[in-house]
Design a protein that fits this description.
single chain, mainly alpha, elongated
């Protein structure tokens, strides 16, 4: 269950179905969220000032 590689590890929803956590899991009381959108994905060649501006927008 503890896999560091995000491409190989199970999702949170899958983890909640694992027998180890079954005692603590209630389908009726488990909210789920949409997938995280990373606005910086694919932006490998941006300047330091652009990074700082993007990071400060996350903290507001």
């Amino acid at each position: 269950m503890l896999v560091l590689d995000p491409d190989r590890r199970i999702t949170a929803a899958q983890a909640l179905c694992h027998p180890y956590l079954a005692l603590f899991h209630d389908d009726a009381d488990e909210p789920t969220s949409e997938l995280f959108f990373d606005p910086l994905e694919g932006r490998d060649n941006i300047t330091m000032d652009e990074w700082k501006g993007n990071l400060s927008s996350f903290s507001k």
